[in-house]
Amino acid sequence: MHLYKKRKLSGYMTVEASFIVPAATFIMAFIIYLAFWFYGRCILSQDVYILGFRAELLSKEQGYASETEYVTDNAGKKLGTRYFAADKPDISASKASDKIKVEGSFLTKTNGLFRYFKSLPSSFRGSAVATVKLRDPSGKLRKYKRIEDIAKKAINKSDKREDS
């Protein structure tokens, strides 16, 4: 046992470091690219909801024929240049009865390490969907006022009949 303690193996730190350093670098690079993807996903989720919400509120006011037309016209302005390390998202909108559905997807490219790590995928795809209910508050208010006016007229007619 005494002989074993005196004898040292040369180069064992080099061999250990040759496995640990690339693994740690890979993990850090993967976390950074994953953070880019999460950032893009959060921004896209917010942007598609805001586009749908603004379409519900502003499309008729700004003279658009439909809410989907508003989304396609204003998507470029809303998206801007906030998508770091990603392509500009593709936005589409569809309308079904009383709901507008806005969908978006983007591609985060991970070629920043010049293919040093072949295990990293070359891109991450992110997507988000927002569904906004079309409420038309002014139309409902007009309907309520019309019902109220009809009720008042009906009450006034019945009051006049009773007086006669």
List keywords for this structure.
three-stranded antiparallel beta sheet, 164 residues, rod-shaped, 56% helix, 4 helices, alpha+beta
Structural commentary:
There is one protein chain. With 164 residues, the protein is α+β, with helices and mostly antiparallel strands. It has two domains: 11-133, no CATH class; 136-164. The chain has four helices and three strands. It has helices at residues 2-6, 12-58, 67-79, 137-163, and strands at residues 90-96, 99-109, 123-133. It has a three-stranded antiparallel beta sheet. A hairpin with a 2-residue loop joins β1 and β2 (99-109). The protein is rod-shaped, with a radius of gyration of 31 Å. The model has no long low-confidence stretch (mean pLDDT 80).
Indicate the structural class: alpha+beta
The tally of domains stands at 2
Query: Which word captures the global form?
Result: rod-shaped
Give the strand tally: 3
Note the beta-strand portion: 15-25%
Radius of gyration, rounded?
31 Å
What is the CA–CA distance across the termini?
125 Å
How many H/I helical runs? 4
Bin the helical content.
Answer: 55-70%
Order of SSEs: HHHEEEH
Largest beta sheet: what is the strand line-up?
1-2-3
Parts with pLDDT < 50 across at least 5 consecutive residues: none
Characterize the main sheet: 3 strands, antiparallel
Report mean pLDDT, rounded to a whole number: 80
